[in-house]
């Protein structure tokens, strides 16, 4: 029994849903309502000391941090989300981390709300998000201007980079970032969304409790 | 010839310095003065599309993103920074990422200055740093309250987690976070600083240009 403690709109949860679906692993989704503060309950803190989502219960383990979870799934289920040699793995991980470390944490709702509320009107949630997602994705677009970019971020198979990219694009669109300027990213978004397993992980497939 | 484009005070640069030193790999350090805006020059953007540090030139490659770099070094030089089985690797990566994804990006100087300047006095750089580093390290301390914690974060050998932890502790002390509350982290800090290779990577060993 695989159980994913997650939130439908959380992009790090969305990453893990894509991974599980691509592997065809059935799981129970337990929604932790970030908007309602459920991430900070004693129950959630016991399973995730950082008070965030996602947490994956699998094979008697309780795993946190979406990229650590995806690397685990890749290793245990031979997912093929990382290329066969070290230099190419470094490229894929660098793209994934350019998203997961440079863009997403700054646009984490808690951090963004903190900055916006302290700004007393200088920043709106929308402008904070746009100011940080836009330049971040521009850098990723530059990284994708590379001979090894194929149908997906690296060659013609889904990698860790694509699994991180799609949820960030969802967020970018949500906050009104102009995606037309990013041709490689938009093209890869379409490739990803053409896959049933990926589409099934989309936040819109969830109904609010 | 290995060349590291980095900044003495950057914690992600500090991670890579620790890694290179632990492996006994000699390298040339090229300082990119973040305080002086050198990260945004055309030269630096050409080697690092995100306009940050570090960038590692090694074996004809140009690698970015500190954790992707460390995973590369671990693979190519059999560094042993990740344990032998998937469940333990997931634990080590989760601790490393709890630091590198949840704490460090929010306390990136660019992001912090942005939030502080928009706050018009509500936040100082010091208070922004403390508000985000303190709770982040508290969560890491909880993760270290675990039977697999040994001399270091995972067992008795240096792992990716320790390499991420030490620079974050340096930052925490710099911004006045009370480290006495974190007994496991402080103990591991001391273990790390007892190693010559690690001590050689410390920001204090650098003189400003």
UniProtKB/TrEMBL annotation, chains A, B:
GO terms for cellular component: cytoplasm. It comes from the Bacteria. Residues 1-81 form the GST N-terminal domain. Gene3D superfamilies: 1.20.1050.10, Glutaredoxin. Transmembrane segments: none annotated. Keywords: Isomerase. PROSITE patterns: GST_CTER, GST_NTER. It holds the Pfam family GST_N. Residues 85-209 form the GST C-terminal domain. One of its GO terms (biological process) is glutathione metabolic process. One of its GO terms (molecular function) is maleylacetoacetate isomerase activity. Belongs to the GST superfamily. Zeta family. This is Maleylacetoacetate isomerase. The gene is maiA.
